[in-house]
Amino acid sequence: MPHLKLTCENTLPIDALQGTLIGRAWVPGETAGPSPVVLRADGVFDLSREFATLSDLLESASPLEAVRNTRGRYIGSVEELLANTGLESDPAKAFLLPPADLQVIKAAGVTFASSMIERVIEEQAGGDAAKAEKVRSLVTAAIGDNLRSIKPGSTEAARLKGVLIEQGLWSQYLEVGIGPDAEIFTKAPVLASVGSGSEIGIHPKSKWNNPEPEIVLAVNSRGQVHGATLGNDVNLRDFEGRSALLLSKAKDNNASCAIGPFIRLFDEGFSLDDVRRCVVDLDVVGDDGFTLR
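RE: above sequence
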């Protein structure tokens, strides 16, 4: 299957470079290495003289103001970096890296009603994809497919829990989906994610797996959300369905976390409310030409 070639058309936001886009890039030279960068209309600029790492930048009092007040060193055009990003990058030229360095990547599980029901199905099917459709019918009939109106931790959620326990359908996934405490787990350790145009990793023993397109938030150590990027939370449904104790094997493997291509900082034209309104689409194109959207 041909490798994805990054271009401005398939990589930049619909408003192109109007937003504040930061990331990481491999910068060649005598002291070659990764550097935090900013993408502007007149090119890509290395910010490492002011901020050694991207996490340093996000830890500053105001990353947005810091980027605006730092000119940086020109390392190439946006087009040149995108063309050299992916599986066949030339280290003698600059290219984009995943926009995370010294920050562990965390994930929130069971955040949507549809994904919560799918996790229950995985558990009831014991990780067997062949049983999933039959179980799906049973679970949907008992639970329904619209749990969006139920507030986690509420009296209504507690009543639903009682009913499902009686029916033998209560699940640890429902516990974190509509219970008082959210599921937060480590998706990838420091410097373990892959970037746009790279291949993801799937455990060789997994036969039932899928990509999970996500919005990824850039959060500093003080809990301040400064921007957002895109991610692929690669999931091994057969492993997780067998036991929740296999979560680390289902979620944290070599190259099982892809994020990028850059972080869009919140500014006057882009905020957390815009993220809340986002719709994330995914197209999977097979070698046989079949497309799943």
